[in-house]
Amino acid sequence: MSRKLNNTRALRIIAAATAEFAKRTFEGARVDQIARAARVNKQLLFYYYHSKRGLFQAVLGQAAAELEAALAGLPTATGGPLQRLQGVLRAQFDFLARRPDLVAILAQGNRTDLAPFAPAIRRLVVLLAEGQGLGQVRDDVDPHLTAAQALVLMVGYLQLESVVAASAPPLGADEPALRERWKEAAAHLVVAGVAAR
Amino acid sequence: MSRKLNNTRALRIIAAATAEFAKRTFEGARVDQIARAARVNKQLLFYYYHSKRGLFQAVLGQAAAELEAALAGLPTATGGPLQRLQGVLRAQFDFLARRPDLVAILAQGNRTDLAPFAPAIRRLVVLLAEGQGLGQVRDDVDPHLTAAQALVLMVGYLQLESVVAASAPPLGADEPALRERWKEAAAHLVVAGVAAR
DNA sequence: TAGATTTCATCAACCATTTGGTTGAGAAAA
DNA sequence: TTTTCTCAACCAAATGGTTGATGAAATCTA
Fold it and tell me: Which is higher by pLDDT, B106 or B169?
């Protein structure tokens, strides 16, 4: 039962650590608290991951993997490249919005590690290039730059949501939630910005 | 000489604290290090600001004030609302890019405090509304939302610059630096996105 | 104005608590 | 019986915060 238990516990540890690192930042996170939340002895963390930093790397890696897997599994919309682009943008945003912890972790990762958002960007780049091939996306658009803009629009919003909410909100009671409106506006801005006229 | 000295030291403290908080996050920042960098006794920090958090609030307030002052002093471009909008976008980005410490501090502030980027957004809202009045900005554009998008595009980039750089960079040697290209692309995206057709 | 006193500003030395990390030993598999 | 896993107790270092004392202005007093 050790293997099973081990695995289960390792998962619990990663989950707890993800939450803690996301909420409190690497420096702010307390190893003790992670252990308690995972219902494990603190030493187990060091046994598995050697150090706080090692644990964080594990969390980061798993978060990146999760993101990549989720993006790969997104439903492929139908229609032309522009419509598919819009669909992918919406789906990516929805996923990121549902997993703010991943966003927080990965955004921290950028300081130490390589780009964990790369798969998300790549996906967009492909669609944009495809659109250019079909003459539906303007040729003077740089797919990489535009894809990165789209990502920043999504990730940046999720990190600054309270700023946006605090400064923008004359929003009627029945209006769609700010987040939904953002999603639509961002997807629209990108698509409209690259569409060949 | 006490008043002068006090003031000078207070300034040094704020400066040092801004740098430290920006680089290492509130939790990661070490009071000791701030004191050393400001060449003051550690206790002086507590004498002035009572606690680490208090010091951070002071830093945050001063950063917000600095941002507001700088934005107010931006040169007003000439031309129609759209051109002025583009000018303001460029100028705001330039300023924020030159003061990454302010960005880092203010972005942290959002978790605890009210929106410190509000003045920047307001400025954009005014221009957009003006453009709508003149029929140069589409009526279905929500000025608040669009202004926030522009801000996220700028601030988000500065926070995720390494991600963007790591995932996008097939950039030729003589091309303008990534940051410059981003500035232009972002300003263009926003302006083109709202312009009445 | 000289002196007394109160207030402001500054510091070195401390301190209680918390932190990441160890130790050594015992279960449980293999 | 060797390897893998788990834990309670421990520890040195660091951290935010405190104490008590001391120049030096500013304020008051005679």
Answer: B106
Chain B residues with beta carbon closer than 8 angstroms to that of A166:
114-115, 118
Question: CA-to-C1' distance for B111 and D11, Å?
Answer: 36
In tens, the pLDDT along A9-18 reads 888 999 999 9
A145 contacts B149? CB cut-off 8 A: no
Instruction: State the pLDDT at residue A110.
Output: 64
Chain A interface test: which of B56, B164, B191 (most A C-beta within 10 Å): B164
CA distance A65 to B154: 28
State how far the Cα of A42 lies from the Cα of B88, in Å rounded to an integer. Answer: 52
Strands (E), B37-91: none
Local structure of residue B196 (DSSP, 8 states): -
SS (H, E, C) chain A: CHHHHHHHHHHHHHHHHHHHHHHHHHHHCCHHHHHHHCCCCHHHHHHHHCCHHHHHHHHHHHHHHHHHHHHHCCCCCCCCHHHHHHHHHHHHHHHHHHCHHHHHHHHHHHHHCCCCCHHHHHHHHHHHHHHHHCCCECCCCCHHHHHHHHHHHHHHHHHHHHHHHHHCCCCCCCCCCHHHHHHHHHHHHHHHHHECC
Residue of A nearest to B189 (CA): A193
User: A7 CA to D2 C1', in Å?
Assistant: 22
| pLDDT confidence of residue A112 | 54
Dist CA A52 CA A36 (whole Å): 15
Q: What is the DSSP string of B127-183?
A: HHHHHHHTT-B-TT--HHHHHHHHHHHHHHHHHHHHHHHHHS----TTSPPHHHHHH
Q: Are B28 and A24 an interchain contact pair (Cβ–Cβ within 8 Å)?
A: no
Q: Are A156 and B156 in contact (CB under 8 A)?
A: yes
Q: Cα(A111)–Cα(A125) distance, rounded to whole angstroms?
A: 23
